[in-house]
Amino acid sequence: MAKKKESTSLIEALSEFKELKNIDKNTMIQVLEDSFRNVLSKMFGSDDTFSVIINLEKKGDFEIWRTRRVVADEEVTDTVRQVALSEAQSIDPDVALGEDFVDAVDFSAFGRRAVINLRQALASKILELQKDNFYHNFIGRVGELVSAEVYQVWKREALLIDDEGNEMLMPKSEQIPGDFFRKGETIRAVIARVENENSNPKVILSRVSPEFLKRLLELNVPEIADGLITIRAAARVPGERAKIAVESYDDRIDPVGACVGVNGSRIRSIVRELKGENIDVTTYTTNTLLFIQRALSPAKAVAITLDEETKQAEVYMRPDQVPLAIGKNAANLKLASLLTGYRIEVFRDGDAEEDIYLDEFDDEIEGWIITQLKDRGYTTAKSILRTSREELLRVTDLEEDTLDNVLAVLEAEFADEEEEDEEGYENTPAESAEDNQ
């Protein structure tokens, strides 16, 4: 009886364990049944004649029943599937030859070794089930913002534990430069990925992922959480600088202003969380030329040429704008490339000093035309003149006559300058004389 109580208490303990680890009742019953069958199969060579009944509703009771065919005593050849008539009648006097005999099996009678084997089988299956549940629970949470307590910090990674006791890892490569964690400290991070090498799942957290920046913005900007503003792209150089592109579905909402907040109140808390990382917020647009122009801010481009197939962009700028476009440690250029998805190359425009911004033609070209051209990335006269007439007609909504008038005004401006240069050259005989010499 002591052994039976021991095995019964084992089931009761596992019933409590089920509640702690969020294993549902039906799954737990199946695990227990499989574990018993595993032990029975090892003991008898087969478990197909056994029936295991588990009841977790009350005390976690279990029953094992065995079904065998009754044969004459001298005809028993398979003790697993056959039972001698004399043995069967000692339990049930009414049983006859050829009938199925069902009797209860006292598992504790198999000895201590059987109970130990059962414990080991259960422990193995429970562990396997826990790992499987853990993996499938977190694989669907990739990209989610979590808060966890620092449990241990090593040289190459930190171990964190969430409110439910789940262990998570944050490698050094996923930490912001300047991050310094103390044991017991609660930090925020995003679930970057879930690894499952050799059926050993690991949750990897990150504070350098662009997704971390997105989740922080959702937390601090109600319009994003409500779906009024969408984050279309984000790029980071962790701890240094970041760029995000946002779009509003309500014309009454300024997406950039909403993200920054009054006097920078909303963005300031995010900057502190990111260890002083500067965040540039720009308005997203489907116009690639304009989007690249905005992504390179604060630098201003003179002209941009695109190769849609290779996703490359050549940007021409005034010499004084090139350092702004590249930025410290090339961070601005790198972020602009990541944000737009184009490989951006910046060139100094030799003619840029002689170029003219479109705004200076407001006395000859109507304002709405200038605005439309600027919205499509054409900010200077030469950026338009470098583009074919067919391309300009394709990317703008301008009528042919309107575009031809604009081109005529711009061409006339530079034609006048060339004439002045030629006249000035003809009126400098000293220079001509020097050339002849």
Automatic annotation (TrEMBL):
Name listed for the protein in its UniProt record: Transcription termination/antitermination protein NusA
UniProt-listed HAMAP family: NusA_B (MF_00945_B)
GO cellular component terms attached to this protein's record: cytosol
Similarity-based family: Belongs to the NusA family.
Record Gene3D superfamilies: 3.30.300.20, Nucleic acid-binding proteins, NusA, N-terminal domain
Keyword terms of this UniProt record: Cytoplasm, RNA-binding, Transcription, Transcription antitermination, Transcription regulation, Transcription termination
Keyword match RNA-binding: yes
Free-text function comment from the UniProt entry: Participates in both transcription termination and antitermination.
GO biological process, one term: transcription antitermination
Gene Ontology MF terms: DNA-binding transcription factor activity; nucleotide binding; RNA binding
Transmembrane segments: none
Record's compositionally biased regions (Acidic residues): 414-425
Assembly: Monomer. Binds directly to the core enzyme of the DNA-dependent RNA polymerase and to nascent RNA.
Renumbered residue ranges of the record's region Disordered: 414-437
Keyword Transcription regulation in annotation: yes
SUPFAM superfamilies attached to this UniProt entry: Nucleic acid-binding proteins, Prokaryotic type KH domain (KH-domain type II), Rad51 N-terminal domain-like, Transcription factor NusA, N-terminal domain
Subcellular location: Cytoplasm
Domain S1 motif stretches: 143-208
